[in-house]
């Protein structure tokens, strides 16, 4: 009779709600039903779930996972080869990020004050000079940029700690929505995206919705930002970008 939804949830480390959602959207439809109508999963279903979770861990949204797995020209070996390549690249990024965090921890242990790089440790392996160049290239010498420079110049160590805590809380609220399978263009996700924008306005500069959309794209395009979000939750960088984009469109309407 195969495996029950509860057994599969236990095997895979996912929630029953997640399996129900995968069934509802046609991503993982159990092969059988019991006489009472309960879901029963076959070994082939478990193989598909394993592939789904591999791709989810690598940050692929559910709709893209479905397209990849339903491609008639693909085969299990091709999926595994692609996943291995992506995981190898991600491991290298995380290795560099871990080394940077260890360095910061040593500095803190020795009582060294935060450097400009450490102030931005929330963004991972951060290069202030390169970041400044990117800001200039994207937005030029704007009032928003000057306002950010003016405000942050006066921030204390406690200010930076507070800002990091607040930003972390926003990121984790967004990650929880992603975990629950809530669409990025839902009201809930857009509301957290708007909270993210207002956080930037309160802590750094007046961030318009259009500029926020540029930031969202940078979170995906820049591997330093992507690595930070992926370390919180696989797929979060793309999910946050899409929620910001949807929120921008909502306020433009």
TrEMBL record:
<dbReference type="Pfam" id="PF07739">
    <property type="entry name" value="TipAS"/>
</dbReference>
<feature type="domain" description="HTH merR-type">
    <location>
        <begin position="1"/>
        <end position="71"/>
    </location>
</feature>
<dbReference type="InterPro" id="IPR009061">
    <property type="entry name" value="DNA-bd_dom_put_sf"/>
</dbReference>
<protein>
    <submittedName>
        <fullName>MerR family transcriptional regulator</fullName>
    </submittedName>
</protein>
<dbReference type="InterPro" id="IPR036244">
    <property type="entry name" value="TipA-like_antibiotic-bd"/>
</dbReference>
<dbReference type="InterPro" id="IPR012925">
    <property type="entry name" value="TipAS_dom"/>
</dbReference>
<dbReference type="InterPro" id="IPR000551">
    <property type="entry name" value="MerR-type_HTH_dom"/>
</dbReference>
<keyword id="KW-0010">Activator</keyword>
<keyword id="KW-0804">Transcription</keyword>
<dbReference type="InterPro" id="IPR047057">
    <property type="entry name" value="MerR_fam"/>
</dbReference>
<keyword id="KW-0238">DNA-binding</keyword>
<dbReference type="Pfam" id="PF13411">
    <property type="entry name" value="MerR_1"/>
</dbReference>
<keyword id="KW-0805">Transcription regulation</keyword>
